[in-house]
Recover the amino acids of this structure.
């Protein structure tokens, strides 16, 4: 991820690589990087590329920022099946975590 700091004006392919690296990492540092790239994506020609937007949504979701991911998803006019899939994965992951937390709470409460 640090390598991308040396690329001031990344093209679509570079953005895809960066966002996929952020999604795989999932750390707070990766989330910061994805959020740093967000304005660049939305202000450039990349905002017309559904793959870049899907990768951005996926990175945000996997780094735990579902609110920003939903905002990006909502603002993109022509949604693809992949975008819906990225959002559903995020919602499912949150639901599973909440359910697991509730189970743990019940177990420890007894």
């Amino acid at each position: 991820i640090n390598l991308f700091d040396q690329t001031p004006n990344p093209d679509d392919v570079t953005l895809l690589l960066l966002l996929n690296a952020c999604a795989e990492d999932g750390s707070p540092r990766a989330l910061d990087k994805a959020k740093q790239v967000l304005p660049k994506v939305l202000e450039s020609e990349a905002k017309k590329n559904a793959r870049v937007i899907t990768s951005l949504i996926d990175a945000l979701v996997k780094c735990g920022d579902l609110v920003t991911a939903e905002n990006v998803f909502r603002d993109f006019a022509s949604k693809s099946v992949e975008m819906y899939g990225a959002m559903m994965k995020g919602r499912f992951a949150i639901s599973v975590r909440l359910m697991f937390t509730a189970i743990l709470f019940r177990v420890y409460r007894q």
Remarks:
- The mean pLDDT is 83.
- Helices lie at 12-25, 28-43, 50-62, 66-75, 81-109.
- The two ends are 45 Å apart (CA to CA).
